[in-house]
Write a structure and sequence with these properties.
Layout (H helix, E strand, L loop, with lengths): L10 H11 L4 H15 L4 H14 L3 H17 L2 H10 L6 H17 L8 H21 L4 H22 L7 H12 L6 H6 L1 H56 L1
Helix pairs in contact: 1-2, 5-7, 6-7, 6-8, 6-11, 7-8, 8-11
Amino acid sequence: MQTTVSLWPLIGVAVIIIGFLLRFNPMLIVAAASIVTALAAHFPPDKILAAIGSGFLKTRNIPIILFLPLAVIGLLERHGLRERAQMWIASIKAATAGRLLIIYLLVRELTAAVGLTGLGGHPQMVRPLLAPMAEGATETRFGKISDAVRFRLRAYAASADNVGLFFGEDIFVAFGAIVLMVTFLKEAGISVEPQHVAVWGIPTAICAFLIHGFRLYLLDRRLEKELGGRHAAHSIAPEEDAKQAAQEAAKAAGDEA
């Protein structure tokens, strides 16, 4: 005999989507979604509070793990980490934003494939190092850049980290998603080895690298098209001014003679 399954607890998903669309605080969104889901499932208030308290006690050490690296990165930034990264990349004349991000994409994907997912990340790598280096390489080639270009470079730096991590970790046999897929297939009566699932993640990772690497290559072409002409005009302008000043000085000297 089949029983009717209530779909009302899924309203918590709608709360999360609406909260993120309205740009509310993520912690408040998750807390509100959990309470709404529990109420929709007819949980009594005391059981809801007990579940929240139990979850807090189990994960109370996680904030320490998250905040300590952020404090270290913040201290390094205060002492000029971003500026040093920009100066170093500016000394490499052949460096471009696209080439730099392609190399990082490859390294990020390879390290994630062997389980070293903590070597990169937005707070500890993209914001303090990768994005400033991409900006420095662009400013070395084209001079001062606008805020729109700067934000675009930061977005591409973040995307290189996301793509490299997402598709690289699918190759790691102990990754949680692979374990979940193997368990799900096993419950459905399909027996597969985790190694086989990880191996089939390699073609996807290669395709992801080629596709996003090509997008990063097009980024260089786009920057060259947008900023190259302006940079050339700015570099020619001082020469024209100097030449005009010399002509005026020669004309004035001839008039005096």
